[in-house]
Write a structure and sequence with these properties.
The chain is built from 9 helices and 18 strands. It has about 325 residues and is of the alpha+beta class. It folds into 3 domains: about 60 residues, no CATH class; about 160 residues, Sandwich (Jelly Rolls); about 70 residues, Phage tail protein beta-alpha-beta fold (3-Layer(bab) Sandwich). Strands 1, 2, 3, 4, 5, 6, 7, 8, 9, 10, 11, 12 and 13 form a 13-stranded mixed β-sheet that branches.
Length: about 325
């Protein structure tokens, strides 16, 4: 069925106002999932809707000024990022190094009694940190990063717990090192993404530009990645898997989206558990390994996310003992 732009706008507005019937709701999600442009159009408009408490439901009046409002939204996002940076820049704390990292610091001449360590934590919203050498790090939700006052003297080393996108300033004399758990990533100047939350079994490194060398404490030699490659390191069995991936999908979170093309429900829930800072448990062992495709907006409510999962899988959900359990009736 061919629908006019006005029909689509009304459908979106009624979804945002919780006015759709179950049949209309299924039609809405079918439209959203039919094309990436549909997904982007919906999430852009939802972002505007969520950011404006006096949002008008008059379609003809509201959407004719869409371009202006989208620009305003981008400006609001930039202001929020600057506010996060100002807030986290005031935090400085002494950090006790993890025992699992001692092998690296000792072998590279780092003492245990360094004068000071600067630590930053994003909380529920992404943030950004710029290091003294110009290296820019964009941090995902509930992510912490730290570096010592010796940064840039002999080496450039940071400790990451969570997800970060690194745009590293080039310095051939001082390699840049990311340490997370028992893994170590060494580069000279490049762009790459690391996802390594402490609760994750699999740590993921994705290279966009340049080259990186991946080393773990139990490796005899490192693994070198080329642009477009992704390395998955399983901490439980120390297995490494390298594959070619769509890097735009991996770093979609930088543009306020989480894109899955396609991935298993287990992987999607694991990814989004860090975004919402909750634990998901799926009791259906069959559907949890099935693959799904979709895009979620960074500011999307947890209930909205669960409703989408429910419509795609026919799973129900409820809160139990501090976690969200998904099940089939």
């Amino acid at each position: 069925m061919n629908e006019s732009q006005e029909d689509i706008d009304i459908l979106i507005m009624e979804f945002l106002e919780n006015k759709l019937s179950e049949k209309e709701l299924r039609h809405f999600f079918e439209w959203v999932c039919a094309d990436k442009k549909n997904e982007k159009y919906f999430f852009d408009l939802k972002a505007i809707h969520d950011s404006r408490s006096n949002f008008s439901v008059d379609i003809n009046e509201s959407w004719c000024r869409l371009e202006i409002k989208l620009q305003q939204k981008q400006e609001d996002i930039q202001k929020k990022k600057r506010f996060i940076i100002r807030c986290i820049s005031s935090v400085a704390a002494i950090f006790i190094f993890l025992v699992g990292l001692s092998w690296y610091f000792v072998s590279n001449g780092f003492g245990i009694g360094e004068p000071e360590t600067y630590s930053y934590f994003t909380g529920g919203a992404p943030g950004e940190v710029r290091l003294p050498d110009g290296t820019c790090i964009k941090l995902g939700a509930n992510t912490s990063i730290s570096y010592t006052s010796e940064y840039g003297v002999k080496k450039r080393a940071v400790i990451l717990d969570g997800e970060g996108f690194f745009d590293v300033a080039k310095d051939e004399q001082k390699p840049f090192v990311v340490i997370s758990g028992d893994q170590c990533i060494s580069v000279l100047g490049t762009k790459f993404n690391v996802r390594s939350y402490p609760s994750d079994t699999v740590f993921i490194t994705t290279l966009l530009e340049g080259s990186v060398k991946f080393v773990a404490s139990n490796f005899e030699s490192g693994k070198v990645l080329r642009p477009g490659e992704q390395l998955k390191y399983n901490r439980s069995n120390t297995q490494v898997e390298i594959s070619v991936v769509d890097t735009d999908e991996v770093v979609s979170w930088l543009n306020n989206y989480y894109t899955f093309q396609p991935q298993s429900l287990k992987e999607i829930l694991a990814r989004m558990s860090h975004v919402y800072d909750v634990t998901f448990e799926c009791l259906d062992t069959t559907i949890v390994n099935k693959s799904f495709r979709g895009t979620f907006y960074q500011g999307q409510d947890l209930s909205d996310f669960l409703d989408v999962i429910g419509l795609a899988t026919n799973l129900k959900y409820e809160k139990q003992d501090g976690k969200i359990v998904l099940y089939k009736e």
